[in-house]
TrEMBL record:
One of its GO terms (cellular component) is plasma membrane. It is found in: Cell membrane. This is Uncharacterized protein. GO terms for biological process: signal transduction. It is a multi-pass membrane protein. The chain crosses the membrane at residues 32-51, 63-82. Keywords: Cell membrane, Membrane, Receptor, Transducer, Transmembrane, Transmembrane helix. It comes from the Eukaryota. It comes from Hypothenemus hampei (Coffee berry borer).
């Protein structure tokens, strides 16, 4: 098989992958949004429970503390792994674009391979691999960090409200 046909085959495989990612987003995008939302709510609920247990002298045991940490890690683990896998796949698509441009320099500008690689690079630019959660947000590391920082901010706000309640009881 000559290199021009190999490039065309690679481009077609890439387009099939993008189509499959689009189908995945249609089928599971809403579910991924629910998973992210539920894990965020679960983390906040566990942290609030931990805060209430800390303020209650009778339930303040080391077992309760470690069980809350384990529940929190369980709530965070699946969305983190899911987002990391989506981000790695998106990164592989972007590295493919860099590879196209670097291989393109090995061929003459007028060659068939150069033209096919240019067409392939344009397809990659126009049809990126992007995993979305119900078209609300992209699943990538930036989103995961944003969710983490938002949950932390909400936890700080809940902690302040809880401490104000405790001060009112004193």
């Amino acid at each position: 098989m000559d290199s021009g046909k190999t490039i065309v085959t690679s481009r077609n495989i890439y387009l099939n992958i993008v189509d499959n990612v689009d189908l995945f987003n249609c089928l599971f995008g809403r579910h991924m949004f629910y998973v992210m939302a539920m894990s965020t709510i679960q983390c906040l609920a566990i942290w609030l429970l931990s805060l209430n247990i800390k303020n209650n002298e009778f339930s303040n045991t080391i077992y309760t503390y470690y069980s809350n940490i384990i529940f929190n890690l369980e709530a965070i683990f699946f969305p983190y792994v899911m987002t990391l896998c989506c981000d790695l796949t998106q990164g592989a698509g972007q590295r493919l674009l860099v590879t196209c441009y670097s291989i393109q320099n090995a061929f003459k500008i007028t060659s068939e391979e150069h033209k096919e690689l240019e067409l392939f690079a344009n397809r990659i630019i126009n049809r990126k691999i992007v995993f979305r959660a119900a078209n609300f947000f992209d699943l990538d590391r930036r989103t995961m960090l944003a969710i983490f920082f938002n949950v932390t901010t909400y936890f700080i706000a809940l902690t302040q409200v809880e401490s104000i309640k405790q001060m009112g009881k004193l």
